[in-house]
Design a protein that fits this description.
- The complex is a heterodimer.
- Helix content of chain A is about 70%, strand content about 0%.
- Chain A is mainly α.
- Chain A has a single domain, classed as Serine Threonine Protein Phosphatase 5, Tetratricopeptide repeat.
- The longest helix of chain A is centred in the middle third of the chain and has 19 residues.
- By secondary structure, chain B is an alpha/beta fold.
- Chain B has a single domain, classed as Phosphotransferase system, mannose-type IIA component (Rossmann fold, 3-Layer(aba) Sandwich).
- Helices cover about 50% and strands about 15% of the residues of chain B.
- Chain B has a four-stranded parallel β-sheet, sandwiched between helices.
- In chain B, β1, α1 and β2 form a beta-alpha-beta unit.
- Chain B is globular, with a radius of gyration of 13 Å.
- At the A-B interface, α3, α5 and α6 of A face α3 of B.
Chain lengths: ~210, ~130
């Protein structure tokens, strides 16, 4: 089964969710500082609350096959975050859960990721270039579709987050700042980069 | 009572949501069903999908429910809450694109007068520049 991306089992789901949560929570203060510059300063706190809620349910989440696990994690984000990032990340996770089978092939994963990004666009009424999480997710998806390895995906995510510094925000609280939003990294782009990093790190080491 | 459109107020701040609801109550008394949701799941500034769903249920009317929101996250979380309602209720909840305090008072006044869900929404949105 060379076509299968990785063999997804309970241990891997727990490792993926655990690493993503740990990585985001470890950077919560940085996300909050970024959000204080151009938003309302709650992104780190909200993401931390959301992922802490996910971790509180980790046994129930990882006991399910991949689609159910992603839906359950997404639901925790929706219900517990308390800001727009809850429905946005919740939609991303639930969208992935919708498109993936229990043991997805690489192609299937890329297609599901693309569909989940479309769902996030609809939820946030945002497009590429609006200075949002999409400005990391879209280039990472494009690179994955071209067959990039995990190291490349991480580099693409990092460069994409950096690229939001020069953008003017079109959505969210940062858009109220107009041109003054230029010169700051978008907190949602940064948190999406953290997600990509953590997922790549775990999948790289997966059997 | 349930033949009039219900009103829900969603703010990042519980104080703003409660205060807006107080102003609406003063205008329309108890004849319009009214509920508010404010604050994140920990009670701090933010909004909670769960609390919004509870508020919609509390203000439920067969004529529908009009929701007034403050800033972006409140709108996103309200849209999410609406999608999580039973299918037959989803179409009878609308978000008004209007300033929260003035919009809530105008919407409630229209609801009190017996306006339909669409009329309530339009009345609130007359306050918003097109």
């Amino acid at each position: 089964m060379a076509d299968v991306l990785v063999s997804i089992d309970r241990t891997l789901i727990a490792a993926l969710v655990g690493r993503v949560a740990e990585h985001v929570i470890a950077h919560a203060d940085e996300l909050t500082v970024l959000d204080q510059a151009i938003g309302d300063g709650d992104h780190g706190i909200n993401m931390k609350r959301g992922f802490a809620a996910v971790m509180a349910e980790i046994d129930a989440i990882s006991a399910q096959p991949l689609p159910g696990a992603l839906k359950a994690a997404g639901m925790q984000m929706v219900m517990k975050v308390g800001g727009a990032s809850g429905p946005l990340y919740g939609t991303l996770f639930m969208g992935l859960g919708k498109g993936l089978s229990d043991a997805p092939s690489r192609d299937e994963a890329v297609t599901a990721f693309g569909a989940a990004i479309e769902a996030v666009k609809a939820r946030g009424k945002a497009q590429a270039g609006d200075k949002t999480m999409l400005d990391v997710l879209i280039p990472v998806h494009a690179a994955a579709a071209e067959g990039a390895d995990f190291a490349t995906l991480r580099r693409v995510a990092s460069q994409a987050a950096e690229a939001t510094i020069a953008m003017q925000a079109k959505r969210g609280r940062a858009s109220f700042l107009g041109e003054r939003s230029i010169g700051h990294m978008d907190p949602g782009a940064r948190s999406s980069q953290l997600l990509v990093e953590a997922v790549c790190e775990v999948l790289e080491g997966a059997p | 009572m349930s033949d009039r459109v219900g009103i829900v107020i969603v703010s990042h701040s519980p104080d703003v949501a409660r205060g807006t609801a107080d102003m609406v109550r003063q205008m329309v008394g108890t004849e319009v069903s009214l509920a508010w949701a404010g604050g994140n799941p920990d009670g701090g500034l933010g909004t909670s999908v769960e609390l919004i769903m509870e508020a919609i249920a509390a203000a439920w009317s067969e004529a529908g429910v009009a929701v007034l929101v403050d800033l972006g996250g409140a709108e996103t979380n309200t849209e999410m809450a609406i999608e999580m309602l039973p299918a037959d209720r989803q179409k009878r909840v609308v978000i008004c694109n209007a300033p929260i305090v003035e919009g809530a008072v105008m919407a409630a006044t229209e609801a009190w007068g017996g306006g339909s869900l669409e009329e309530v929404r339009r009345t609130a949105e007359e306050l918003s520049p097109v």
